[in-house]
Amino acid sequence: MATYLDAIVARHRAHAAVDSRSTAGLVQVAKEMAPTRGFRAALAAATELAVISEVKRRSPSKGDLFVDLDPALLAIDYQAAGATCLSVLTDTESFGGSVEDLVAARSAVGVPVLRKDFTVSANDVCDARLMGADCVLLIVAALSDGELDEYSSLATDIGLDVLVEVHDEAELDRALRRTAGDLVGVNQRDLVTFEVDQARAVRLAGVMPEHTVRVAESGVRGHDDAVALAAAGYHAVLVGEHLVTADDPIAALQALRVPRP
After folding, report:
1. CA–CA gap between residue 41 and residue 43 (Å, rounded)
2. What is the pLDDT of residue 250?
3. Which among 53, 59, 87, 116 is annotated as catalytic?
4. Residue ranges for the chain with pLDDT beneath 70
5. What are the phi and psi torsion angles at 41 (to 5°)?
6. Which residues pair with 162 in a beta bridge?
7. Is 187 a residue of the active site?
8. Pairing label, strands 135-139, 113-116
9. Is 152 assigned a catalytic role?
10. Residue 136's pLDDT is what?
11. Residue 247: helix, strand or coil by DSSP?
């Protein structure tokens, strides 16, 4: 059954197909940049459940969330409230994000930043580094085994951390076989129904290797969810909609900072 992800990935692949830039040239420039801030290391070092706070204007399932947000001011608020890292949407058509959002947010704070987008080419990986991101997202459902191999290796080569996103056991197995598997995100939202399944996230956490930094993504709705996910073994939660739609995003973020066992 086709999902919203299929249409978005098809659009990104169409853009990638007409990208004539030299990957080798992009890699060379990326390797000359200053070191990244260490996204995975920041999550691993956190003494409580780390919060990856997202700069998110809209979503395909919910529509407009906070279209007029100021990415720099929101990033400053997130950092002040104790966010360990940031995630910034750069997809324009489906999420209303932009490269400019990431640049503005990262320039305003000192915490590491994930480029949240649909990586479908080597040039996409390079672009994440060139725009200033510290981590790139690879969605297992959107990529072949060969692409997972290539893009995760390239990201590491140019200094990026890699957050590998999975939805189920089969995708987790591919992630662990095809990448370093040291930073894995479990998307709790079903690609077809959009329903949140926290039980699946809890189940997958229990079968990840000890060295894997575990991130629960999508559908984290507050303090109780954070407590349950920390108890399941997650190091971090990635939260967007819950924060950008909150009356008080700072208080909402602070409520997610719960002890880890």
Report:
1. 5
2. 94
3. 116
4. 1-2, 192-194
5. -60, -40
6. 136
7. yes
8. parallel
9. no
10. 98
11. coil
Q: Which two tokens stand for residue 177?
A: 């076989």
Q: Do 250 and 77 contact (CB within 8 A), yes or no?
A: yes
Q: How far is the C-alpha of 230 from the C-alpha of 166, rounded, in Å? A: 18
Q: Which of 53, 54, 59, 171 is catalytic?
A: 54
Query: Catalytic annotation on 217?
Result: yes
User: Which three-class secondary structure string do you get for 16-70?
Assistant: HHCCCCCHHHHHHHHHCCCCCCCHHHHHHHCCECEEEEEECCEECCCEECCCCCC
- Establish whether 241 is a catalytic residue: no
Q: Which of 87, 121, 165, 241 is catalytic?
A: 165
Catalytic member of 53, 56, 87, 171? 56
Q: Which of 224, 102, 225, 111 is nearest to 216 (CA)?
A: 225
Give pLDDT tens digits for 71-115. Answer: 999 999 999 999 999 999 999 999 999 999 999 999 999 999 999
Residue 56 falls in the annotated catalytic set: yes
- Between the alpha carbon of residue 102 and those of residues 26, 44, 181, 217, the distances in Å are 19, 23, 25, 19
